[in-house]
Amino acid sequence: MITDPHISSAFDRDLEAVQALIMKMGGMVEAAILDAAQALETRDEELAEQVRRGDAAIDALEERIHAEAARLIALRSPTATDLRTVLTVMKIAAALERCGDYAKNLAKRSLALGQMPTVGDSAGSIRRMAKTVELLLKDALDSYIQRDAHLAAEVRQRDREVDQMYNALFREFLTHMMEDPRNITACMHLHFIAKNIERMGDHSTAIAEQVIYLVTGALPGDPRPKEDLATGPLSAKGGR
Amino acid sequence: MITDPHISSAFDRDLEAVQALIMKMGGMVEAAILDAAQALETRDEELAEQVRRGDAAIDALEERIHAEAARLIALRSPTATDLRTVLTVMKIAAALERCGDYAKNLAKRSLALGQMPTVGDSAGSIRRMAKTVELLLKDALDSYIQRDAHLAAEVRQRDREVDQMYNALFREFLTHMMEDPRNITACMHLHFIAKNIERMGDHSTAIAEQVIYLVTGALPGDPRPKEDLATGPLSAKGGR
Known about the structure:
Chains A, B: It holds the Pfam family PhoU. Chains A, B: Keywords: Cytoplasm, Phosphate transport, Transport. The structure is a homodimer. Chain A is mainly alpha-helical. Chain A has one domain: Methane Monooxygenase Hydroxylase, Chain G, domain 1 (Up-down Bundle), CATH 1.20.58.220. Helix content of chain A is about 80%, strand content about 0%. Chain A has helices at about 5-40, 45-75, 80-115, 120-145, 150-180, 185-215, 235. The longest helix of chain A has about 40 residues, at about 5-40.
């Protein structure tokens, strides 16, 4: 509806500023994921503490993005695709904030696990899973910045790998617990960590789906290729 | 800044419409929590299926609230407290959506658990915990509608009870798993369920904190009274 190029470009300029904050936040969350996983593997208490404390800055950035996006709506009154874009920015910020929380939780649990005997090479497997998810999140954010529906669709597909890694770890933990009850407490922590990394993958997928909606105007047609409880290892163990 | 009473009341009218949707969404989420917990205790597959399918309607309502709140900002250009109120509505809707997801997950896990032997009276304990959280969520939403900072502060305090219930259940599950490895798979499900209910309590607390901020203009001064990993049973078991 707005044809004045000055008003239009003011919106674009404001949007770019908010998007720069999103990329900054994305970088912080990616670093937190990798650092937390590394702290777990190398039993680096200082690094874990750093991730734990660093989450406050991520939360503050989400607040700021939320407020600036709202101000953008109030000032520029965007409609149609522009409004949808700003709402997508808010959703991406919320998804990143959740991922930051999970990284913080990973760091806290790695501090607790540092006092327990190791369980096989599970910390190494978790670090590899975290690396996979970090790349997924990075590509999900890139697909937003570039409005690249193909890359977003690829992110959705690749989340399957993360689900498979989680399922494999879950079986591994069950085996360790059944073999030796002294592993149970550590495995409970490790299982939560694996589950939370898998959830970061889900958030990356959710970002990718927002991008597909933004670019194509339609949500992905096929059901999300997530391997959930109905087909996952839990229900198999349950004999369903 | 806006002094025209017509514009001011148009905002209030629009806000009330969005708030009605929030209360409707709250009612749906509360019912989902109670139904899912009951389905777990009575092994009612049909009820669990109903909760699982019902989550789509909760998700759709969040989308609608998000869109209407954005439209409200675009149309009425609220500032200061009014803008903060609309942003709070969006955050409450997002928190409710998460709680709906947890209820759905509870329902899915109860379907898997229906095929396994029961573990003590854990399903009864979980139902009581779910009831406590449902009341907490209800009061958090009421504190928003009534802009009641006292009720919101009470919700924050009462979340401690939920944390304690979770901690007690966690110890119970550990004991069952160590006593008999055949309980391990069921206990992993039950532990996730308990953790997710505890997270619903956290979301209720987050809503209460938004209300306190909205009413008093300041975030609660004392640190959130959450019993987290640092003082909880996990780290105690870890010898920290």
